[in-house]
């Protein structure tokens, strides 16, 4: 409402009172959209303002995570902003997270890699009233992040190693070479632990070499695996820990052929590993199901904000999926579009949320803690 500075007409007193009252209501409503309202848990039918901070963007894994998060936000009636650095860069990611929290979101889904570096920024965000949960990497103690959505990394690698061990047989002799993306990072190191422990138990006559650092940058990763394959041309198997490892191993296997078995994590049509499994060039890989992780974590935050409730405490286990030649085509079919992915996961999602936040199928968060990484 504007005023004429010339003062041609004075308003009746009741109109002035009404205007002041309306302004007070407007200011109150504005305050309810600030971080103060977020810290109280929202409620009252507001539209939750959520964020997601990825460890890196621009890869199929992150794209699928974002697709799920967008659908989860929509299901909760929330608005979602997604950010993250183009490569794994914790310093940049933490800066982006700090900038995101400065906009006073109601909640943020975080991919905290490596988790120990995120303790302080996550704790500060939680103390400010921002609701938090984590995907892909379990939060460290002291982070004040109550919920983790994902799998046990060591167990996933163990299951993949078991597939290779069964293929090779208990009497196998020779060498298996392990590659690791970012050396020293706890998630990848836990995958290496899973490989080593399983091979030691099931293939006692096999020598396990590595892990040898392969890195995350695509060209450097391919160069690293090319050098490894040149150095160990008679290896029984090459196993990696990342989607880049899957991509590089699929390309090398397609070019060179041979009897060496290969496998890693996060096969997709985009990185060529899914096709390699379909045609038998790659034995198997771990599918982390990023879509459903992004969906669950985002929807939980949105519903917690709308209901004015805390984020539930615990670990929501999304399970371990081993991709092999038998199921690779079905997985490729569900990845053809977001609609196909959405339709595939709908029955599982409906079951998870059937009883609301209070009925989520949670396990203790301590059960998914990463194993300590042995010092070299």
- Shape assignment: globular
CATH architecture of the largest domain: 3-Layer(aba) Sandwich
Q: Give the helices and strands as they follow along the chain.
A: HHEHEHEHEEHEHEHEHEHEHEEHH
Helix share bin: 40-55%
Order of neighbouring strands in the sheet with most strands: 2-1-3-4-5-11
**Oligomerization:** single chain
Under CATH, the topology of the largest domain can be stated as Rossmann fold
Q: Report the C-alpha radius of gyration, rounded.
A: 25 Å
Structural class: alpha/beta
Annotation, overall tally of beta strands: 12
The structural domain count equals 2
Taking pLDDT < 50 over at least 5 consecutive residues as the criterion, the unreliable ranges are 1-43
Question: Overview of this structure, please?
Answer:
The protein has 376 residues and is α/β, with parallel strands linked by helices. It has 2 domains: 41-151 and 290-319 and 337-368, Rossmann fold, CATH 3.40.50.2300; 153-287, Response regulator (Rossmann fold, 3-Layer(aba) Sandwich), CATH 3.40.50. Helix content is 45%, strand content 15%. The chain is built from 13 helices and 12 strands. It has helices spanning 13-32, 35-39, 60-75, 90-101, 119-127, 153-168, 186-202, 218-231, 243-256, 273-278, 290-306, 328-334, 338-352, and strands spanning 49-53, 79-83, 107-110, 131-135, 147-150, 174-180, 206-213, 237-239, 261-265, 284-287, 314-317, 321-323. Strands 2-1-3-4-5-11 form a 6-stranded parallel β-sheet, sandwiched between helices. It has a 6-stranded mixed β-sheet with strand order 7-6-8-9-10-12, with helices on both faces. Strand 8, helix 9 and strand 9 (261-265) form a beta-alpha-beta unit. Helix 3 (60-75) packs parallel to helix 11 (290-306), helix 6 packs parallel to helix 7 (186-202) and helix 8 crosses helix 9. The longest helix is centred in the first third of the chain and has 20 residues, at 13-32. Residues 1-43 have low confidence and may be disordered.
